[in-house]
Amino acid sequence: MYLIVGLGNPGKKYEHTRHNMGFDTVDLLGEMAKIDIDKGVFNGLLGRGKIFDKDVMLFKPTTYMNLSGTAVRQVVDYFKIDLSDIIVICDDMALPVGTIRLRSKGSSGGQKGLQNIIDLLGTEEFKRIRIGIGEPQYDAIDYVLGKPLKEEMPLIEEAMQNAVEAIKEALRFDFERAMSKFN
Known catalytic residue: 19? Predict the structure, then answer.
């Protein structure tokens, strides 16, 4: 069973903000795979289905970004998910707008949702896909909680689509192949 987690903040106020790239990408993957992410459990929204005959769970923690690990830990414990079968998708200010970076492990790079997952799982040994939102020209909190500029949207949409394709590649073959193709 694969667990694919999109990070973000719940509620209308945060829909389609830079910080919700993980939510939006998981939604896109759910649409592609015809998996509804609508079951409210484990402090989040969960959907289950198959992609390339692989059992997958798509999950959006509703604990707010900085406490994402609480919800992820609950799902991992309940379903006994192997850490090697987790992929977390989040935004990254250190990457240019519209780029993605896949990593099989590593630090949070300052991303607080990732850091909380690392803290509560007790390891950095899980896969992640970061979607570049670019460096803020003003307050970082206002920036990540703001919506991308109109001219950034085509780049963001392409990055989210690339992230979906990278996940499909990882499920069909393996994550290393996806990293070599999409990094």
Answer: yes
